[in-house]
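Deliverable D4.2, example record:
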Amino acid sequence: MIQINGKGEKVNSLVVYSTKSGNSELIANSIAKDLDCGIVNLNEVEFEDIDLNDIDTIFLGSGIYGGSFHRRIIDFGKFLNSSSSNRTAFLKIAFFITWLGRGKSDLTGIKHFKGILKTQRIDIEDDYFRCFGESFKFIRKYHPNENDIENAKEWAKKMSVKKNDR
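Output generated by the structure prediction step:
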């Protein structure tokens, strides 16, 4: 599967996400549309079907659940480490997170994920995006909102520029 943008051009970035409530999906769709790049919902595909050979940056999105990423994101990290991954080049990962804002659960999730990625061919950006996500239809209601979406798009553009400056 080659990632093609809406203009028929090959792209080097890919938005990959998993979601339970739709919060991460909203941010993922906004980033992919703004960057005009491919998007993959890990809840709907097998990892082996994702062609990563020409991808140099993955925008990886998840909610935080008890200090951890969505199970499919964790499994995807294990896949990236495995010999099953069809990736051959260096890869950068930039996280975007939706969460309820509990303590340092965002940092706990990132630390846990970094522990999974033992390969030296993956660079995890320290600069990540986070915004509140609605839960149970009343906690953090109306999030992610338009401001959150605009901030996510600006962050993704900044990450793309950083990538191109390397």
